[in-house]
Amino acid sequence: MIAGMTDGATLLCGKSVAENVYAECTAAIADLNQKRGRPPGLAFVLVGENPASQVYVGRKQKVSERLGISGQIIRLAADVSEAKLLECIDGLNQDAQIDGILVQQPLPAQIDATRIVRAVDPAKDVDGFHPANLGALAAGLATGFRACTPLGIMRLLDSAAIPLRGRQATVVGRSLIVGRPISYMLINAGATVTVCNSATDLQLLNQACRAADILVVAAGRPALIGADMVKPSAAVVDVGINRDSAGKLCGDVDFEAVRSRVAHITPVPGGVGPMTVAMLMANTVAAAGRAAKS
Length: 294
Ligand code: GUN
Hints:
Blueprint lengths: L2 E3 L4 E3 L1 H23 L4 E7 L3 H17 L2 E7 L5 H13 L5 E4 L9 H7 L11 H8 L9 H12 L8 E5 L6 H10 L3 E5 L5 H9 L3 E4 L17 E4 L3 E2 L5 E2 L4 H4 L5 E2 L6 H22 L1
Parallel strand pairs: 2-12, 3-4, 3-5, 6-7, 6-8, 8-9, 9-12
Antiparallel strand pairs: 1-2, 10-11
Helix pairs in contact: 1-10, 2-10, 6-7, 6-10
The structure holds guanine.
Guanine binds next to strand 5 and helix 6.
């Protein structure tokens, strides 16, 4: 089952769509193993002790293991110098056993994240953050790697056959990880896209959200989107991962209030999160496939 019914909206269930992606990956990995005699290699660089980052990287490594991808976590101290981190990335760029490199964000304040993103070989940039990859996306080219969370959102929308061409899409958030790349993906798919950010006038934000056939929210603000901010036929994609006052995981959308008013909605957890991990695996398999051909 790809999508489930909830009270009103159909749930966009990332957990089950991710399993379809894994089935495709497993077949491609078997093929690669035969061709190269080794599995795809993925390196995770984890700087410091950020609890959320540790959980995310642990989850990604566990899935890579399950699929037979060789996943290696490189842990660096929170006070590591930028030079040392650049040296580590350079080593991974040169390592023929490594097909994909992921430097988990956020990075500590002493490190210029932009420099780090630019240091990763674009051919191993399975995060899709390098300007060469983001630029290819912005230019509408089919080459390079796409950022995992937005790529997962596109796959989730596709799994429910939600039309994009000629539709109004509103993106709340302009981050490098989600807001910018998903905006370009939606533009490339023929949607009319409005991008809001934390400085957007509240009345304009309300208006843009209510006009949206597809609403993607990646603001990091619990319950930012309420029942009066959505169109009844909308597909609502909640990228937020927050904790409410009781410590329970919640997104940026007031799920209970919104679910009965829209056509499609992603749950938190179980919506976008599993798709991010799945698309990382798909990108790693693609990187290994391209390396095998070169
Ligand atoms: N931090 C939050 N999401 C991501 C992601 O997709 N990739 C990396 N590298 N860091 C993140």
